[in-house]
């Protein structure tokens, strides 16, 4: 498999995979005829073991030593007293990310984001890190400490970090979800995150992204016959202005298969349409749908 699939299967970003490979020699990929790195089940197992070690607070270098010892059939060396590194407060890590984004430093920002997410299951990292960060970035923009360029830079960085996690098991028979933001809505990171949580729970996900015309959403729903269609918007008027099209989509797929989400999803409109409504964070929405996400 190529690095994007490996990242999706393990939850470790391509950036972090390459760093562990380069710095510690953790993985031994082969090369395809076209020069691409190819990874196998052993590499996937090593990365999963690394995540387990890091989640226990074992420093990366020590974690590699233990993981490789286990792979080579040797007893893993005991962790010396005092070597586990306490997790730095989220506040400190968030400040590092803000500083990197402020300077448009993509390398520092990527490292900071990986540091923030490496030791957290995705749902916890989303609630404890990404959502607070994006909220603070919005506040910085509002009071003049950040610009639209900073917001776009950060969103692009996060989107690239999340993209490898969006891959789903197309060989599986899990339910199918169609996700989209209606036309006029540019913010799709929370919907993207919701899709990742569904994928981790065994759903197959089709994400149409931001600013999608209702006609395109309806066409996709006709072609895919999904088990669930979720539309997300941050402003209520983006839904209310499309009330007739939403009604047509509901009639096409069934009220029990359509749900509104995001801060723009008003209870009044959902009740008026007779469709579902997800509230809270993407993690809370996914938990309401499928149970506790991994």
Automatic annotation (TrEMBL):
InterPro entries associated with the record: Cbl-bd_cap, Cobalamin-bd, Cobalamin-bd_sf, DNA-bd_dom_put_sf, MerR-type_HTH_dom, MerR_fam, Meth_synthase_dom
UniProt KW keywords: DNA-binding, Repressor, Transcription, Transcription regulation
Keyword Transcription regulation: yes
Keyword Signal in record: no
PROSITE patterns in UniProt: B12_BINDING, HTH_MERR_1, HTH_MERR_2
One Pfam family hit: B12-binding_2
Superkingdom to which the source organism belongs: Bacteria
CDD domains noted in UniProt: B12-binding_like (cd02065)
Stated name of the protein: Putative MerR family transcriptional regulator
Lineage, uppermost ranks: Bacteria, Bacillati, Actinomycetota, Actinomycetes, Micrococcales
